[in-house]
Amino acid sequence: VLKLKLYSFWRSSCSYRVRIALAYKGLAYEYVPVHLTRDGGEQHQPAFRALNPQGYVPFLVDGDFGLSQSLAILDYLEQRFPDPALEPRDAQARARMWAFCLAIAADIQPLQNTGPVTYLTQTLAHTEEQKAAWIRHWIARGLAALEAGAGAGPYVMGAAVTLADACLVPQWYNADRWQVDTVPFPKLAAIVARCRAHPAFAAASPERQPDAPAPA
Amino acid sequence: VLKLKLYSFWRSSCSYRVRIALAYKGLAYEYVPVHLTRDGGEQHQPAFRALNPQGYVPFLVDGDFGLSQSLAILDYLEQRFPDPALEPRDAQARARMWAFCLAIAADIQPLQNTGPVTYLTQTLAHTEEQKAAWIRHWIARGLAALEAGAGAGPYVMGAAVTLADACLVPQWYNADRWQVDTVPFPKLAAIVARCRAHPAFAAASPERQPDAPAPA
């Protein structure tokens, strides 16, 4: 019986993180698209707000349990479906993995999220170019710190794929989307390339989602 | 032997979260102040960047292990010093607790952090009033969603203090600091008042830290 349901938007990097974990763990789920820009944003409609008062995707439903926040969802999936693992067993390695995830989820992504950048252009009347410069600034600053702390690979935490990789690849997608110069981040680039070759990461990619626009 | 060391700034809400957990668990630690605005920010100096390439506080040192990111630190402390507990045992309750923490740590705090608001005033030449309006907007939006999802108390997750309370109280401190109208959030206000009466929360408060300025 299919019991997992994911409210997602194809281009949402936070949704993308969760899709990677679901695919890596081989979990089937119902994909419920929530269009973040059409009609002022479907995430603001009463039906979705009743589910998630924050009005954000992703939102996971597991039977009668609903959960917001991509990192909470990732950890919940790990506890519920531990095999194959996406968290290190060692406590210090696990803590460092979360620090990496949070450096993306708390320090980069929020600043390039739809809400803040819309505030920049609408409330503060900035140009699209100023908006893009803001986004590029925070992505580049964040990736520079992660590059400085990066190990030898092949994945963020070493030999095995973890949730850190599931956070890095979607952030890198946004870096590409906003034309951030990623040449200064060769270690991260190598990890991303390796991840992208993995079928789970490929299946979770934005352009492979049901709500992605057809190729031009 | 004193082995825990916390790099902290008295007014940093992320440092404040960790101080609450340390005090609640009764853990002694060495307090290392990092002044976030003096001399362009001590967190940007080479010695601190060598420790934490992100250049943020808090940063925890446990013996020869160093860890950044307040939520990663909170979870690490919970695994390392599980008693008294600050995380629910039930997997779903624990996941909801993390979702609450992340709604603050990923959706509110990053937008009122020193870096972004300095970008608003310096790079984008906004006024202090526009900066304050931006900060108030994101705090109010975030707290409104948390109020909508809040339970009956006495604490965020019900009967027991958890890491959700350790995230809420510092965010509320910032709401007060920026004069956010908190009248629309009576459930959260009641939880905060209850927490503030707890000795651990009181001991962790900004004005009680060694680097806090003397009262005027």
Would you mind describing this structure in some detail?
The structure is a homodimer of 216-residue chains. Chain A is α+β, with helices and mostly antiparallel strands and 216 residues long. Chain A is 50% helix and 8% strand. The first copy, chain A, has helices spanning 13-24, 46-51, 70-80, 91-105, 114-123, 128-149, 163-177, 186-196, 199-203, and strands spanning 4-8, 30-33, 59-62, 65-68.
Largest interface: A-B, 46 and 46 residues
The structure class of chain A reads alpha+beta
Structural shape of chain A: globular
Give the topology string of chain A: H per helix, E per strand.
EHEHEEHHHHHHH
The radius of gyration over CA of chain A amounts to 17 Å
**Oligomer state of the chains in this structure:** homodimer
How many helices of chain A does DSSP assign?
9
**Percentage of residues assigned to helices of chain A:** 40-55%
What's the layout of helices and strands?
The structure is a homodimer of 216-residue chains.
Chain A: E1 4-8, H1 13-24, E2 30-33, H2 46-51, E3 59-62, E4 65-68, H3 70-80, H4 91-105, H5 114-123, H6 128-149, H7 163-177, H8 186-196, H9 199-203
Parallel strand pairs in A: 1-2
Antiparallel strand pairs in A: 1-3, 3-4
Question: Any key phrases for this structure?
Answer:
homodimer, 216 residues, alpha+beta, four-stranded mixed sheet, 4 strands, 50% helix, globular
Report a brief summary of the structure:
With 216 residues, the first copy, chain A, is of the alpha+beta class. Chain A has helices spanning 13-24, 46-51, 70-80, 91-105, 114-123, 128-149, 163-177, 186-196, 199-203, and strands spanning 4-8, 30-33, 59-62, 65-68.
